[in-house]
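User: Here's a protein and a ligand (AR6). What would the complex look like?
Assistant: Let me lay out the input and then the predicted complex.
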Amino acid sequence: MEITVNKAVITLVQGDITREATDAVVNAANARLAGGGGVDGAIHRAGGPAILEECRKIGGCPTGQAVITTGGNLKAKYVIHTVGPIYRDGSKGEADLLKSAYLSSLRLASEKGLKSLAFPSISTGAYGYPLREAAQVALETAIDYVKDHDDIEQVKFVLFDERSFNVFCDELKQLIG
Ligand code: AR6
């Protein structure tokens, strides 16, 4: 599914983000930038050791913020590592932190002059964020950002499993009415 907002195309696909050829792919990392399972593990496996080397030099990333490294062996030139919130009960600032993770990644892409980036569904795996709410935050944040910024040409959401893909499509349809 694809929509155009201002100068940008927002695309939803089901797939593996490590195969994306956007300028950057976003990693759902942990605050220590230490690598891990899920999409984090997949990106480090596919991208090779140069990514973890740069992560070690950077040292860490607070929840809701983002840092950038090489893409190593990936098709994407860069990896933007962001840290989503661990979901507790929804009253611990989770929505603001998730929004901030998406926004920090988009801002970093703009700062670096990047035109296209691909996001996974941040926080909805190991970090337990309810999928529907997370999809709404993700899509609203991306749409609002490209409305105000002409530089980014493509924001892709690469959803690994069918359920995530379907929920993101449903939420996008609702948001655009
Ligand atoms: N491409 C796209 N999406 C993927 C891929 C892939 N190759 N692999 C998994 N996903 P998670 P989180 C989906 O757990 O919840 C790590 O250990 C997955 O199906 O990767 O933010 C980190 O080091 C799910 O829909 O990230 C942190 O400690 C989504 O990506 C912690 O997990 C997010 O799931 C971060 O947890």
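Summary: The two ends are 14 Å apart (CA to CA).
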